[in-house]
Amino acid sequence: MPQAAHAQTAVPTVDCFIGGRWAPAADGRYFDDRNPEDDALYARAAHGAAVDVDRAVRAAQQAFDGYRHTLAREREAWLIKAAERLEAEAQAFIDILIDEVGSPLAKARFEVAMAVGYLRAAAGAARRTSGQTLPSDVPGRLSLSLRQPLGVVAAITPFNVPLIKSIKLTAVPLATGNAVVLLPSEEAPMLAARVARLYHEAGLPPGVVNLVTGFGHEIGDALTGHPLVRLVNFTGSSRVGKHIAAIAGAQMKRVTLELGGKNPLVVLADADLDAAVHGAVMGMFLYQGQVCMASSRILVERPLYAAFLERFQAAAEALPMGDLRRPETVIGPLISPRQRERVRAHIEDALGKGATLVTGGGWNGHRCQPTVLAGVRPEMTCYAEETFGPVAAVYPVDGFEQALAQANDSRYGLSAAIYTRDLDRALAFAAQAHAGMVHVNAPTLHDEPHVPFGGVGDSGFGREGTEVDIDTCTEWKWVTIQTGGTA
Ligand code: NAD
Fold it and tell me: Which one of 258, 301, 386, 464 is the catalytic residue?
């Protein structure tokens, strides 16, 4: 039976999965995969090179030639089986999410539940990959639109929600008859290998799902620029997203880019304060703020500002930072030395330039305390840049118009939230917010399988979600048949 990882030594190894076989990188190198809690060695993963990417893409293309002719009911069954296996093996995935990327238990369970949902929704997409019969201007002409799969789809995932994204970026491509090559974050190769194994054991034919582990900055271009890759599904930073967009543009290749965020949460004076504080705390601090939808800019109408800040501070200080395997823990370790340094630098920069530390700013090991800043100004790095850690800036605003203007003062545009009892102003905010997603009286952080998920501006290009994915993953073809009758 193919193994994603085997414990021949004390430290497990993760290999590439190409053409239905587990294999080391061509040159046999491995890299260290560390547990962010203490940076102890967790696994060693194949250090893939461009030659491995090429092998994986060619294996995917070869498999595609047969897979494209499989029946919708077969693809539906494989994806349902994958969902069932994921539910049955949930604990194994949860353990990896805790030990490989520092997920608190609740966040790990959330990822599993979401991923099961994406698989089920994608299974349903197999039978909905349909075209139309169209009226024709020519007598006797039967006019049809057909959907055809694209071919090889590259799925490139970030470290923070590696299960959600490994499934979300592959499930509908597979449902619609495409083959995939998965390049996971170098911080989460074990999790990706487990996903590849899941698909394999669910019965998907060899070569339809391939995995190359390694460093995106070394081998990403070999994948996104490969002539056989027809679609790049990317989730990650805006910097890398723009780089991929340039490659895809030059090659007339499809791309979806789900990128960073600097998401505003607006609290108007008539808001339900309890709900707003709860939404801000969960939206900001889940998974220690390493979430693209984190509410890192909180704009509170002045009459409620002091009360909100006091309650928000107290709630932030009460967030449990203990054992990741306890269900109440919210704050875990930041993923890597580089990311910890970034968070530290953002806090120091803000404080050095005159921001007020409302709470936090300290560290327990690799965990940054939930940090709340006031008095953040545009010249401070964290005003505009994504921190990707547990650091929130709270601003007083004078009225709806100022709240809207400041909410829109960002080159990002992923998610936005507003808390108010005034439906007219809520809808005006929803209409005018520079964001791909707006939530009223609910946190910025939310997703469901079938919705058009994504952002505008530096937050991305294109959308994810079952229906839009069917469009993204298929090519329309218009076919006409001239009949002798009145068809
Ligand atoms: P990252 O951009 O550093 O890496 C993401 C992936 O890109 C990794 O797999 C990496 O190996 C790969 N990569 C790096 N260089 C590449 C290249 N030249 N070509 C192809 N791939 C390359 O991001 P990260 O630190 O892993 O994740 C955090 C970022 O992801 C944040 O900005 C966060 O907001 C964003 N994110 C967005 C969403 C969303 O849905 N909008 C969801 C989760 C995370």
Answer: 258
Other Cβ atoms closer than 10 A to 48:
31
Is 201 considered catalytic here? no
| List of residues 6+ apart from 243 with CB closer than 8 A | none
Ligand 1 pocket by Cβ (under 6 Å):
156-161, 183-186, 215-217, 220-221, 224, 235-237, 240, 243-244, 258-261, 292, 386, 388, 414, 460
How many angstroms separate the alpha carbon of residue 158 from the centre of ligand 1? 4
Question: Which residue has the least CA distance to atom 10 on ligand 1?
Answer: 216
Q: Which of 298, 299, 302 is nearest to 289 (CA)?
A: 298
- Residue intervals of the chain classified under CATH 3.40.309.10 are 264-440
Question: Which atom, in ligand 1's list, is nearest to the CA of 247?
Answer: 19
Instruction: Report the separation in Å between the CA atom of 40 and the middle of ligand 1, taken as the mean of its atom positions.
Output: 23
Task: Report which ligand 1 atom has the smallest distance to the Cα of 238.
Answer: 32
Query: Residue of the nearest CA to atom 26 in ligand 1?
Result: 158
Torsion-angle region of 156 (φ positive above 0: left; ψ -120 to 50: alpha; else: beta) = beta
DSSP 3-state helix, strand, coil percentages of the chain (rounded to 5)?
Answer: 40, 25, 35
Which CATH code fits 264-440? 3.40.309.10
CATH, range 13-259+455-477: 3.40.605.10
Going from the Cα of 337 to the center of ligand 1, the distance in angstroms, rounded, reads: 16
Amino acid present at 33: D
Q: List Cβ neighbours of 77 (8 Å cut-off, separation of 6 or more).
A: 123, 203
Residuewise pLDDT in 10s, the chain (487 residues): 334 444 445 899 999 999 999 999 999 999 999 999 999 999 999 999 999 999 999 999 999 999 999 999 999 999 999 999 999 999 999 999 999 999 999 999 999 999 999 999 999 999 999 999 999 999 999 999 999 999 999 999 999 999 999 999 999 999 999 999 999 999 999 999 999 999 999 999 999 999 999 999 999 999 999 999 999 999 999 999 999 999 999 999 999 999 999 999 999 999 999 999 999 999 999 999 999 999 999 999 999 999 999 999 999 999 999 999 999 999 999 999 999 999 999 999 999 999 999 999 999 999 999 999 999 999 999 999 999 999 999 999 999 999 999 999 999 999 999 999 999 999 999 999 999 999 999 999 999 999 999 999 999 999 999 999 999 999 999 999 999 876 5
Residues carrying CATH 3.40.605.10, the chain:
13-259+455-477
Torsion angle defined by CA atoms of residues 50, 55, 60 and 63, in that order, rounded to the nearest 10 degrees? 170
Q: Whose CA is nearest to atom 24 of ligand 1?
A: 158
Calculate how far, in angstroms, residue 400's C-alpha sits from the geometric centre of ligand 1. Answer: 34
Distance (angstroms) between ligand 1 centre and the Cα of 160 equals 9
